[in-house]
Amino acid sequence: MLTYPQIDPIIFSVGPFFDIGPLAVRWYGMMYLLSFITIWWCAVRRTEAGLAATSNRQEVEDLIFYGALGVIIGGRIGYVLFYQFGAFLHNPLMLFNITQGGMSFHGGLIGVLIALALFARKIHQPFFAVMDLVAPLTPIGLGLGRLGNFINQELWGRATDVPWAMVFPADPLQLARHPSQIYQFGLEGVALFIALYFFASKKRPQGLVSGMFLVLYAVFRFSVEFFREPDAHLGFDALGWMTRGQELCVPILIAGIVICVWSIRRHKVGAN
C-alpha cells in the first residue's frame, strides 16, 4: 500500500482581513490558473502555425476569457443540477455557495459550448472551427484539475487491496482506496492530450477533432468510474451499477460519434 503524500491544500494565506478571515491561495485554484495559462500558450502556438480559427493573440485572449466564463459558470451550475438537484430545490441560493460542493465537467462542457458559440459568432468563424482549436487543449485543464482533486483529498476511489492503494487522511472510513484522481489525470489528462494534440497536428475535416475529443473523453471517463467511489448521496443509478458520471458519458459518446460521422461524410461530399 502506498502512503498518501501530505500536501497542504493551501499554498499560502495572508490576513486576516476585517471580519472575513485570512485570504488563502489553494492548489485547486492554482490548477485552474495554470490551466488557462498553458492553454493560452498552446493556442497562441497553434494560431501562429496556421492551425487555428483564431488569427492573432488578441483573439486567443478573448477565447480564453469566453472559455473561462463557460467553465466556471457552467461547471458550477452543472454540479448543482446534476449532483445536488434536490438540495438546490430546497435552497436555490446554494448555487452561489462555492464552499458547498464543487464543479462538474459535464456542466462545464455545456457552458464552454455556449461560450464558444458566442465567440465563434463574434469572430465570424464556424463553430466547429473554434471547437477544433479548443478540444485538443482541454485535457490540460482536465488533468491539472484532477491533480487538484487529489491534493484536496476528494473524489477518491473505491476500496481495494491493490498494491498501489492508499488511505486518504480525510476519509472517515480510513479504507485503502484506488487513487482514482491519478487514474483520471493519466487518462483524461495525459493520454487524451497526447492523442488529440498529435491527431490535430494535421489538417482534419472540420468537426472531426471535436468529435474525437467527445468519444475519447466519454470512453476514458466511463472506464475510470468503475474505480471511483460514487457520490454518497447518489450511489449507483441506472441498472444498479452505473454511476451518475457514467450516465452523463453516454450522451457525450453518442454526440461524439454523430459529429465524427457527420464530419467525415461532409468532407467526402465536399471532395466530390
Keywords for this structure?
mainly alpha, two-stranded antiparallel ribbon, 4 strands, globular, two-stranded antiparallel sheet, 60% helix
Short description, anyone?
It is built from 9 helices and 4 strands; from the N terminus they run E-E-H-H-H-H-H-H-E-E-H-H-H.
Structure notes:
By secondary structure, this protein is mainly α. It has one domain. 60% of the residues lie in helices and 5% in strands. The chain is built from nine helices and four strands, in the order ββααααααββααα. Strand 1 and strand 2 form a beta hairpin. The longest helix is centred in the last third of the chain and has 28 residues. The chain is globular and about 60 Å long. The relative contact order is 0.11. The model has no long low-confidence stretch (mean pLDDT 89).
Topology:
Layout: E1 10-14, E2 23-26, H1 27-48, H2 57-83, H3 85-90, H4 105-123, H5 127-134, H6 138-152, E3 166-167, E4 176-177, H7 180-199, H8 208-224, H9 244-271
Antiparallel strand pairs: 1-2, 3-4
